[in-house]
Amino acid sequence: MNNTAMNNTAMTDQAWLIRGARPLGGQPADLLLADGLIQEVAGAGTAEAPVGAQVLDAAGLIALPGLVDLHTHLREPGREDAETVETGTAAAALGGFTAVHAMANTDPVADTAGVAEQIWRLGRQAGRCDVRPVGAVTTGLEGRRLAELGAMADSAARVRVFSDDGSCVADAVLMRRALEYVKAFDGVIAQHAQEPRLTDGAQVNEGEISGRLGLTGWPAVAEEAIIARDCLLAAHVGSALHVCHVSTAGSVEIIRWAKSKGWRVTAEVTPHHLLLTDDLAASYDPVYKVNPPLRTAADVAELRAGLADGTIDCVATDHAPHPLEDKETEWPVAANGMTGLETALRVVQEALVDTGLLDWAGVADRMSVRPALIGRLTGDGAPRHGAPLAAGSPASLVLYDPAGREVVDPATHASRSRNSPFAGMALPGRVVATFLRGTPTVLDGKLAR
Ligand SMILES: [Zn+2]
Ligand SMILES: [Zn+2]
Q1: SS3 224
Q2: Which of the two ends of the chain, N or C, has the fewest CB atoms closer than 10 A to its terminal CB?
Q3: What's the CA-to-centroid distance between 188 and ligand 1, angstroms?
Q4: Catalytic annotation on 13?
């Protein structure tokens, strides 16, 4: 056995005693992690450290199950200048994530079992969080014919979430067929809801700001019309629809209605749509250019309320890294997208917890439990995520310090890109440590491996 192998073994076998953390923001407890599992949860100061265990003083820190992101752009293969699986999963770990779903709009597109398996393997090599490839719905994201959904589902990558994200599956017949097809293996179609004709050349939210700036508007109805159609299609064929990055008050209302019917519809909202509004576009700084666009304060209020009451199931980052040259240019030609992995939990604290809309148990539900369910990460061959912080669960968790407030500086981020819309903003909280199946990926706010 060489030294590297011995070190790896030592790391895997290292037991950790986390002293005095507050599971889901509740009473302080000791958590003993060993052999990849939570072995014991005991009253604070009562657990005995086994011989050789590392002890981590977590007084004041909140313990949450490792976060799960349903919507990450890792950019590899094809745009390694923007992000790689290595840098993207480093960013994820620093944000408290233990699993991310990697969107399919890479180059080549993840529309075959081969590309999906390549991304899955790169994630395993990086080893910082579980990378679950999202498969394309249509070949080349072109919206003409269905991709090899079954082959991707049967592959080693076990794809269960399919999306043409970046593009909308606009053709109703293709969308219906995709929904029907994935029923066979309990898959889900994640739709980027954007009626293409209604958003031709769109640059910002259609409203007062678009009028004032003289930029083509992206109307709320272009999102809402597709969501309504897809809810009806999902109900008609009895399949599972997931709505990506819900951004308007009307969308929340439609999803609430679909859920009241008992239809299999789930939805996500991004941190940026929970905190930022379209008046930021008045700066003409393309760091605020994103698709769907930032909306109004009234939309933000309804998105927060929808997440709080469970209409919107989860927070998903839509982490969309871009190199400087694609962002620091004129608004009309700048790329859409914002980074988000390293700030997501802090933004959720600011928008939902510190406003009294969600408690920490609610945050665990919306950022770990429910996204794990939607991503089919709750067992049956896939790595398990979103499990309760209890003996026998995988030791995948995040320790978070909600105290303090610090200005976001993207230069310190592990992401290869710097296009954070929160740059220069003071946000609360700090991810202190992340554990993936008992092994620390982040300690004292820094990468541990
Ligand atoms: Zn999208
Ligand atoms: Zn996206």
Answers
A1: helix
A2: N
A3: 16
A4: no
Task: Say which CATH architecture domain 66-374 belongs to.
Answer: Alpha-Beta Barrel (3.20)
In this structure, which ligand is nearest to the CA of 166?
1
**Encoded amino acid at 258, one letter:** A
Mode of pairing for the β-strands spanning 426-436 and 397-407: antiparallel
Q: Is the whole model's pTM more than 0.85, yes or no?
A: yes
Across the beta sheet with 241-243, the strand order is: 161-162, 188-191, 241-243, 265-269, 314-315
Give the orientation angle of helix 220-237 with respect to helix 249-260, to 10 degrees. 10
CA distance 160 to 163: 10
Report whether 292 contacts 218 (CB < 8 A): yes
- pLDDT tens digits along 206-259: 999 999 999 999 999 999 999 999 999 999 999 999 999 999 999 999 999 999
Cα dihedral across residues 323, 328, 330, 335: positive or negative: positive
How far lies 148's CA from each of 178, 397, 441, 448, in Å? Answer: 11, 34, 34, 38
Spell out which residues have Cβ within 5 A of ligand 1, the ion. Answer: 165, 192
Q: Which amino acid is at 80?
A: E
Average pLDDT over residues 344-366: 98
Cα(431)–Cα(441) distance, integer angstroms? 12
**Centre of ligand 1 from the C-alpha of residue 194, in Å:** 9
Q: Calculate the alpha carbon distances from 4 to 7, 9, 286 in Å.
A: 5, 9, 45
Phi, psi for 119 (deg, rounded to 5) = -65, -40
Q: What is the pLDDT of residue 12?
A: 56
Assigned token pair, 242: 């997931």
What separation in Å is there between the alpha carbon of 111 and the centre of ligand 1? Answer: 17
Cα–Cα nearest to 157, from 190, 132, 184:
132
Selected from 3.30.1520.10, 1.10.10.10, 2.30.40.10, 2.40.10.220, the CATH number assigned to the domain covering 16-63+390-447 reads: 2.30.40.10
Q: Which of 69, 130, 230, 318 is catalytic?
A: 318
CA 211 to chain CA centroid, nearest Å: 32
227 CA → ligand 2 middle, Å:
16
| Spatial distance between the Cα atoms of 51 and 222, rounded to a whole number of angstroms | 60
Domain ranges of the chain: 16-63+390-447, 66-374
3-state secondary structure of 130: strand
Q: For all residues of the chain together, what is the average pLDDT?
A: 96
